[in-house]
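in:
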């Protein structure tokens, strides 16, 4: 009887291992929960700090034209709904703040640092959400350049030229050259439609197609013209003018020379 009771009270050999495993699970889970909460609180505090910094920058540099509540004024349009992408494009390329009134905002050296630009974008987006700044995976140059070239010729070449060399528009406006432009700004321009450019949202041109267009433009930038002298990539008008002035001119000059020599 005593032997049976002793056997019943004996601890299983794996009981210690199970207890240690349970203890580790509770300890690890509690640590992970605490760490995640602390990180989330830090991120939230950091985001709020960024928005507060953007609010100060906006009030001192942008509110005169765009209004304290982004409602716009007679001197500048409303920014409600433009999102972080539009602010990042306009401020990052130096188009804003405006140097002077004109047919369109001119690109110039940026007046704010990258962190200040991000703060302004975060502030505007916090008041009225809109298109976000594209992520790194949307800006890779590993898309389909063939598809990108077709999309560019259909949607963009009538203003920017088939080679992205830019072109004149009406009333002193122009489509800028796209050579050397950062991928981020090309994407944001398609997404937000700055100034005279139409908006190509993700329903018009998908993020994958935008990446293909960027790939095509970067291919043109990194590969010289296979035909030799490209005449500035200005298209058939420039090529036709070149032929008329130099080609036909050379033929006429040669004809006059041969006639004069025969006489």
């Amino acid at each position: 009887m005593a032997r049976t009771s002793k056997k019943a009270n004996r601890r299983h050999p794996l009981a210690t291992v199970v207890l240690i495993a349970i203890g580790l699970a509770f300890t690890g889970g509690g640590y992970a929960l605490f760490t995640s909460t602390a990180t989330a609180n830090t991120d939230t505090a950091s985001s709020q700090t960024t928005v507060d910094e953007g609010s100060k920058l906006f009030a001192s540099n942008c509110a005169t034209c765009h209004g304290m509540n982004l409602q716009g004024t007679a001197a500048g349009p409303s920014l409600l709904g433009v999102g972080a992408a539009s602010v990042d494009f306009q401020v990052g390329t130096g188009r804003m703040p405006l140097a002077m009134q004109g047919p369109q905002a001119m690109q110039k050296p940026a007046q704010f640092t990258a962190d200040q630009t991000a703060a302004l974008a975060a502030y505007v987006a916090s008041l009225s959400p809109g298109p976000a700044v594209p992520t790194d995976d949307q800006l890779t140059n590993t898309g389909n350049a063939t598809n990108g070239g077709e999309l560019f010729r259909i949607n963009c070449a009538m203003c920017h030229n088939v080679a992205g060399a830019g072109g004149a528009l009406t009333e002193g406006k122009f489509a800028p050259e796209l050579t050397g432009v950062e991928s981020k700004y090309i994407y944001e321009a398609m997404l937000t439609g700055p100034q005279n450019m139409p908006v190509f949202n993700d329903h018009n041109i998908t993020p994958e197609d935008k990446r293909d267009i960027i790939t095509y433009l970067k291919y043109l930038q990194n590969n010289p013209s296979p035909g030799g002298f490209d005449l500035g990539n200005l298209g058939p008008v420039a090529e036709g003018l070149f032929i008329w002035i130099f080609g036909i001119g050379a033929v006429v000059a040669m004809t006059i020379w041969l006639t004069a020599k025969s006489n």
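note: Residues 35-132 form a domain with the Cytochrome Bc1 Complex; Chain D, domain 2 fold (CATH 1.10.760.10).
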